[in-house]
Design goal:
Blueprint: E1 6-7, E2 21-32, E3 41-53, E4 58-62, H1 69-76, E5 84-89, E6 92-94, H2 99-108, E7 109-112, H3 116-119, H4 126-136, H5 142-155, H6 172-184, E8 190-194, H7 202-219, E9 222-227, H8 230-236, E10 239-244, E11 247-253, H9 254-259, H10 264-272
Parallel strand pairs: 4-9, 4-10, 7-8, 8-9
Antiparallel strand pairs: 1-6, 2-3, 2-5, 5-6, 10-11
Helix pairs in contact: 4-5, 6-7
């Protein structure tokens, strides 16, 4: 697939229960320099993957490093164009990821990255960090933007005094709360959380997971939660997708996949993971 404009649905709107974003038989192929002198090697980072994400639903994507999880996350948020396959955004086909489409997707699908220490600008206060996406998208008036920033800090459980702090003055858990608040700034329908707790101390992981779960319930968010830790995914997910070597090897309701796994690879992941709580 070429990377877009969105083709309008027949009636101009997506059905109320349609997925916010959907991948249909998506492939992402990279060319590697590890190939021979005359032919580069092709690496199939994502291989024939389909997924639907709706509001109010958490899909957990689990697999070892190199399984294609993070590449699929980049496709979902518009940072990576697929080599083949189809993307649907609010029911409309995305044919190319143009700047305009990326802006449109960015207002509806937000991302929380793995390490808040590198995801946040060390020279920007929390106030400026949260204000930035509102300014870029020209949301409301200066006064309503300031009010939204104060609301976001409260929403993720930080005190008002955090607004004037720099990332280096905060703990890892506090920084990740800021990153979550920034992802919520434009009131998205879906958040893609790519290993959002793996850089945190064990003592604060459960707090961040509980925060994400509470925000999902309070705001009706859809969520894609990506992790190599199947026990962490168990804690937050309604459905689970197990990936290996770029392919989906098992998927379904979380209870079914975790309590009655059909694939040996899923059983291996379950057996290797310590309990989260």
């Amino acid at each position: 697939m070429t990377a877009s404009t969105a083709t309008t649905a027949t009636d101009g709107t997506a059905a109320a229960d349609a997925p916010v974003i959907e991948l249909r038989r998506v492939h992402v192929v990279f060319r590697s320099r590890a190939g021979s002198l005359f032919r580069a090697q092709e690496v199939h980072a994502v291989d024939d993957v389909s997924i639907r994400v709706r509001r109010g639903q958490t899909i957990g994507i689990v697999g070892e490093s190199g399984s294609g999880k993070s590449t699929m996350a980049k496709v979902l948020v518009g940072l990576q164009a697929p080599t083949e396959g189809e993307i649907r955004f609010r029911g409309d086909v995305v044919t190319r990821y143009t700047h305009a489409v990326r802006r449109q997707v960015g207002r509806v699908v937000s991302v929380v990255f793995q390490d808040p220490a590198t995801a946040l600008n060390a020279r920007m206060t929390v106030r400026d960090t949260l204000r930035d996406p509102l300014d870029v998208h020209r949301v409301g008036t200066p006064a309503t933007r300031d009010a939204r920033v104060r609301e976001l800090v409260h929403l993720v459980g930080l005190p008002p005094s955090a607004l004037d702090a720099l990332p280096g003055q905060m703990s890892g858990g506090q920084r990740q709360r800021v990153a979550i608040a920034r992802a919520l700034a434009l009131e998205p329908d879906v958040i893609v959380a790519d290993e959002p707790t793996s850089a945190l101390d064990v003592s604060v992981r459960a707090q961040v997971l509980n925060l994400l779960d509470d925000l999902k319930a309070e705001l009706g968010l859809g969520m894609v939660f990506i992790s190599h830790d199947i026990q962490t995914v168990r804690h937050v997910s309604d459905e689970i997708v197990v990936m290996r070597h770029g392919r989906v090897v098992e998927s379904g309701p979380a209870a079914r996949v975790l309590d009655d796994p059909q694939e040996e690879y899923t059983r291996t992941l379950l057996g290797a993971a310590p309990a989260l709580l």
